[in-house]
């Protein structure tokens, strides 16, 4: 039985996003955090760690087509607080169209200090990352979290998801506390959210 036209209309943006993601992944697989946009449960889990009552910026790394961005807004994060750091110019254009009040920065999140040096007006209340960390050398990952902590307010979270069974950044970093969500089996592939805070 065919879907009613209203149901087809609701499914179309998700399908379009999946096609965009797949095309970008085929062109540059190591630049993409996933083959498909994050599932709703994974995105909601990541957004859960962000303080909605703060006025401070929320930095999202690698937002892609905005699956996690939408979850942040649905949770209650004011769109004006969002600083979206995206490498892909096509995704940047899409994000500017979808989230006109957010600040979209086309730049390299793995060079976060350079990318954000004149962007933030105050320390961030969270950095939420959809980057493919496990595809990067450990020194690159450690530099990223160091730069993220420089941009963050004291005690604010660096939130990262991974499909891997091991944490994307070691749990034993000096002066850093970690926590992890349960494995999110409803995501494809299953994922876990890791949260890092500088003590």
Automatic annotation (TrEMBL):
Gene3D superfamilies xrefs: Vaccinia Virus protein VP39 (3.40.50.150)
InterPro entries for the chain: KsgA/Erm, SAM-dependent_MTases_sf
Pfam families tied to this protein: RrnaAD
SUPFAM superfamilies hit by this protein: S-adenosyl-L-methionine-dependent methyltransferases (SSF53335)
Top-rank lineage group of the source organism: Bacteria
Keywords associated with the record: Methyltransferase, RNA-binding, S-adenosyl-L-methionine, Transferase
PANTHER family: BLL8166 PROTEIN, DIMETHYLADENOSINE TRANSFERASE
Name of the protein: Methyltransferase
